[in-house]
Amino acid sequence: MAGHDHSDGGHAQAGHSLSGHSLSGHAHGSHAHGGHAHGGHGGHAHAPKDFGTAFAIGIVLNTAFVVIEAAYGYLSNSMSLVADAGHNLSDVLGLAAAWIAAILVRRRASARFTYGYRGSSILAALFNAVFLLIAMGAVIWEALVRLVHPEPVAGTTVMVVAAVGILVNGLTAWLFASGAKGDINVRGAFLHMVADAAVSAGVVVAGLVIQLTGLAWLDPAVSLVIAALVVWATWGLLRDSVAMSLDAVPPEISPDAVTGFLLERPGVAGLHDLHIWPMSTTSVALTVHLVMAEGHQARRLPGNGFLTETAEGLRARFGIGHATLQVEEAGGPACRLAQDCAA
Q1: Which residues contact 311 (CB under 8 A, 6 or more apart)?
Q2: Residue 74, number of CB atoms within 10 A of its CB
Q3: In principle, which of 23, 127, 188, 298 could form an S-S bond with 267, CB 3.0–4.6 Å?
Q4: 201-240: pLDDT as tens digits
Q5: Hey, which residues does 284 pair with through a beta bridge?
Q6: CA–CA dist 236, 257 (Å, integer)
Q7: Residue 226 contacts by C-beta under 8 Å, 6 or more apart in sequence?
Q8: Whether the Cβ atoms of residue 316 and residue 298 lie closer than 8 Å to each other
Q9: Cα(32)–Cα(29) distance, rounded to whole angstroms?
Q10: Do 306 and 320 form a contact (C-beta atoms < 8 A)?
Q11: Contacts 24+ apart (CB under 8 A), 257-262
């Protein structure tokens, strides 16, 4: 169709009254767009918060604690402290990866990376989940070895150092708590710190009980329980990050509800080729082909009103900040993608 509209936010072009820009036959992949609306190039429905300060403080605190814990573990001949120091080191690396991703997300798009580097936040969340599970695997292995071959534990030293670990990791977790629900990249950092605080708390309890009873096997036994809890909590992060990396529809968005909203738009007789996927851990994109009733004038509203209102509706109702709408007319040439979707 000739003379289709693109809504993106601000200027007129090619003789059309637009809120964005207009192209005829805009190429996208292997098919041509007659027209589409972008609802969010410059911003998103859920803009990521800046946790740069939290990442910096967390990395500095945990790096210092790793050095202290490893040193006291060596001096007190405590393998549990040395093992926990290795686990904390993995968390420092996880925090660094999450921080790098948070920085990359804010970089501008380029001719090659047309969405920018938003997807790096998804990769960081996946990395965090995998890395945390590997670290827990190491803790479980060490605990099993210690169950078979119990070793004397310097209870007082272990308790004091582990108590410091609770403070360090608890403070770091608190820094990320506000973003743990809205951004799985931040949630990964939060879970790392909560897991460390839990491990440290378990070590304190185990050290106290061992001092009172002399039962050295309690140390690895408590470690196994804590590791199992961490693995259980991390599984959700792994599942969500894998789903995001595979462009799955975010769980809070119902494709049926989106379809119903689009079909209720004036003049829309049908739709096909609907795709909804996360561009990052905080922004969602949508593409769809809308089939307009033949001769219907809704899409030609002044100021590109149909496209703008539809994109804003998707943003307000579903949090979809980047909507691309291709408009087709019933009775015209059949869209090849419609045939592929029906196959």
Answers
A1: 7, 37, 38, 39, 40, 323, 325
A2: 13
A3: 298
A4: 877 887 788 788 877 787 778 778 777 877 887 888 889 8
A5: 278
A6: 25
A7: 139, 198, 199, 202
A8: no
A9: 8
A10: no
A11: 257/318, 258/286, 258/314, 258/318, 258/320, 261/313, 261/314, 261/317, 261/318, 262/288, 262/290, 262/310
- Amino acid at position 173, single letter: A
The tokens describing 270, both together, are 């049908």
The model's pLDDT over 139-162, given as tens digits with 9 standing for 90+, comes to 788 778 878 887 776 677 778 888
DSSP 21: B
Whether 92 and 63 have beta carbons less than 8 Å apart is answered as: yes
Q: Which residues pair with 249 in a beta bridge?
A: none
From the list 277, 273, 282, 290, the residue with the least C-alpha distance to 325 is 290
Q: d(Cα 91, Cα 163) in Å, to the nearest integer?
A: 18
Which residue in the block uniquely carries the two structure tokens 């119902």?
Answer: 254
Distance (Å, rounded) from C-alpha 277 to C-alpha 284?
A: 6
Element (H, E) at 260: helix 255-263
Q: How far is CA 238 from CA 35, 193, 230, 277, in A?
A: 37, 16, 12, 17
Q: Which runs of E-coded beta strand occur in 267-321?
A: 268-278, 284-292
Q: 204-209 long-range contacts, Cβ below 8 Å, gap at least 24?
A: 204/158, 204/159, 204/162, 204/163, 204/166, 206/80, 206/153, 206/158, 207/153, 207/155, 207/156, 207/158, 207/159, 207/162, 208/155, 208/159
Q: Helices in 48-183 by DSSP H: which ranges?
A: 52-75, 79-105, 120-148, 155-176
What span, in angstroms and rounded, lies between the C-alpha atoms of 193 and 187? 10
Q: What is the CA radius of gyration of the chain?
A: 27
Predicted structure pTM score:
0.67
Q: How many helices (DSSP H) and strands (DSSP E) are in the chain?
A: 9, 5
> Could you report the per-residue pLDDT of 290-342, keeping only the tens digit for each?
998 877 666 566 657 888 899 999 999 999 989 999 988 887 667 777 666 55
Interior angle at CA 184, CA 173 and CA 322, nearest 5: 140
Q: Which helix (H) or strand (E) holds 298?
A: none
Is the Cβ–Cβ distance between 51 and 176 less than 8 Å? Answer: yes
